[in-house]
Write a structure and sequence with these properties.
14 helices; alpha/beta; 2 domains; Aspartate Aminotransferase, domain 2; 4-stranded antiparallel β-sheet; single chain
Amino acid sequence: MRPAIPFDVDRVREDFPILKQKVHGKTLVYLDNAATTQKPQGVIDALERYYRTENANIHRGVHYLSELATAEFEETRTQVKHFINAREVREILFVRGTTEAINLVAQTFGRVQVKKDDEIVLSEMEHHSNIVPWQILCQEKGARLRVIPMNDAGELILDEFKKLLSKKTKLVAIAHVSNALGTINPIKKIIERAHRHGIPVLVDGAQAVAHLKIDVQDLDCEFYAFSGHKMYGPTGIGVLYGKAKLLEEMPPYQGGGDMISAVTFEKTLYNVIPYKFEAGTPDIAGVIGLGAAIDFIQSIGIENMGQHEEALLKEATKSLSQVPRLRLIGTAREKAAVLNFVMEGIHPHDIGTIVDQEGVAIRTGHHCAMPVMQHFGVPATARASFGVYNTFEEIEALVKALKKVWEVFG
C-alpha cells in the first residue's frame, strides 16, 4: 500500500510549466533532480519581474531602482539566514554555487591554515568539487589528503574516520548527502568527532538543502555550502555559510567592486563581511530568484517534501529491484531519493538514450564522483533522482522504459 502524502502532488506539478511539455511525443518524466531541479512559476516570475521592473546595480546607487534592487537582494540574504538558521546575516555569502563556495574556503581559509605535511580529511563518496580544490591546495602546500572509506552499501566507516584525525588534520570537508549514492551521512556525529580534536568542518550541502531541514547552529559546522539550482532556484547562484569569526579572519578571495572600502595604489582597505567576499556585480536576479525558491519550499514545508520523496524512494527501490539483471549501487540505510544502478551488459549511456526516447530523463555517467565508480568497479552508472513534483506513475514510466532497454538489447 502506498503511503499517503500530506499534500497534493498534482497541484504542486501545476506550478512547473516545463512538466507540461512532451519529449519525443511522450509526456516528460523528469528524474534528474540531483543534477538540477526544475523551476516553479514563482521563481520564473521573480526573475522576469526583476529584469522588467527593477533592473539596476546594487549597494552604491542612490536612485530608486538601485535602492529597490538592493533591498530585495539583501532581503534574500536575511531569508537564507532564517532558512538555514545561521546566527547572523553577515555569515551568508552569495557565490555562484557549491563549487565556488568550496574553492573560496580552500583559497582563503585553506591557504592560511594548511602548511607542509598537514592533512585534510575527505570521504570516498565526495563530488569532484569537494576533491579537486583540496588537491590543488595540498599540491601547493605540500600537504596531503586522507580519505574516509565506505562499505559496499555506500555508508562511511566511522571507525576508520576516527583513526584519520590527528594534530596534522586542519579540516574535514564532507558531503551531507552523496550525489551519486543518495547516502545521508551522519553529519552531526562527524562534526562532533572532529571538534573533539579542534578540527573545523566544511559541509557540502548541495544535495541536502532541498530534502532535509538544515540548522547550521545545531550542526555547529564552520562552513556549509549549497547551490540554488538544486533547490528549485536559478542556476549560477549559491550560498556559503561561514562562522563570522572565521570569515573575519580569512583574506579576500577575489578583488574588486563591493569587496573594498578604500583603494590607493599603496594599499587597499577591505569591506566588512559578507561583502569582503563578494567582488564585482553579483547575480542580482539569481539572488532574488533564490529567495523565491525558498518561498516555494517553505510554502510546502521541507518535512512534507521529505516525506513525499521518502515514499517515492521506497516505491522506486521496490520497483527497480524487480527489473531483470538490474543492480542498485548504494543501498545505505539512510538515503535521499536517489537510485543509482547498472544493467548487466548494457552501458549506462545506452540506457539513458533509450529511456529518453520514452520521455524519461535520467542521468548517466560517473556523476562527477569517479572514486565512487572505482569503489564499485564500474565505469559509469544510470541515476534516477526524485523531487517534490515526481509521482508514483512516473516510477512506473521509468520501469516501463527500462524494460524497453531489454527489448532493444534482447
